[in-house]
Specification:
With 275 residues, this protein is α/β, with parallel strands linked by helices. Helices cover 42% and strands 19% of the residues. The strands form two sheets. It has a five-stranded parallel sheet with strand order 3-2-4-1-5, sandwiched between helices. A five-stranded mixed sheet has the order 6-7-10-8-9. 30% of the residues are buried.
Length: 275
């Protein structure tokens, strides 16, 4: 009988954020897969956990992953962690989860802190939905292509950025999204020097011309505001409703979803549908 892969969240900065369940499972699993064993070892030592650490990072090979899967198939349990926060999102651990799914290995989650959600809640923006973009591409051409694709995004966008790239990223964003677009810059979350700065993009560019960026950043960027000329008509909204119904949605659910997206009332859409 195969073992289990546990996706184990870890603190994003403050060691006190580790949970009792995380500590217990880090002790109980047969081995732990870590992105950087040196970083994870500090956490294990703090919690007096002595367990086998196996390195698994972005440069690990398919054979490395297969060796881990074979150990789990043989009955061992494995905990996968990242350097900070929840693993398996923009993280090497997602490879292990995918292989476990392919091999019908049981996967369980042991949730913990998330820089994305923490920054979103601190931003002060109205967030009914958001899109996580991770790190922008390093190559200039790909980077600008990604920003062009996001230019019309109406949801809040959340990015990660390193301090040495922050200035250029803010400048590029100001060019593509406009200097008036709202932004919250969250750095050193849960750490001693945690800071959240709320600006317009133009103000952020000016601020970092005289203040050197320090620490890892999570950028929360407001989405494009709808303007009247861009607002969908009732016919546009009804077309969306019909498409959802034809895709298998219940009429009431389709009207509710489109109402949330377009600003029309659910009852208004449902009445139009009945007519």
């Amino acid at each position: 009988m195969s073992g289990t892969l546990y996706i184990i969240g870890t603190p994003i900065g403050n060691m006190e954020d580790i949970t009792l369940r995380q500590i217990r499972l880090l002790k109980e699993v047969d081995f732990i897969c870590a992105e950087d064993t040196r970083v994870t070892l500090k956490l294990l030592n703090r919690c007096e956990i002595k367990n086998e650490l196996v390195s698994f990072h972005e440069h690990s090979s398919r054979k490395d992953a297969q060796r881990i899967i074979e150990r789990i198939l043989s009955g061992e349990s494995c905990g996968v962690v990242t350097d900070a926060g929840m693993p398996c999102i923009s993280d090497p651990g997602e490879v292990l989860v995918r292989l476990c799914c392919e091999n019908e290995i049981d996967v369980k989650v042991v949730p913990g802190p998330s820089a994305v959600v923490s920054a979103a809640s601190l931003s002060g923006m109205h967030i009914s939905r958001f899109t996580f973009e991770g790190f922008l591409p390093t190559a200039k051409k790909e980077r600008l292509e990604r920003l062009e694709l996001l230019r019309s995004e109406t949801a809040v966008m959340i990015f990660y950025e390193a301090p040495h790239k922050l200035k250029s990223t803010l400048s590029d964003m100001a060019e593509y999204f406009g200097a008036d677009r709202k932004i919250a810059l969250c750095r050193e979350l849960t750490k001693l020097h945690e800071e959240v700065l709320r600006f317009s993009l133009g103000e952020a560019v000016v601020y970092y011309e005289v203040n050197e960026p320090r620490g890892e950043y999570v950028i929360v960027l407001g989405g494009r505001c709808r303007i009247n000329s861009d607002m969908p008509t009732l016919d546009d909204a009804m077309a969306q409703v019909v498409n959802l119904i034809e895709s298998g949605e219940k009429p009431t659910d389709a009207c509710k979803a489109v109402a949330k997206e377009t600003g029309f009332k659910k009852s208004e859409l449902y009445s139009a549908l009945l007519k």
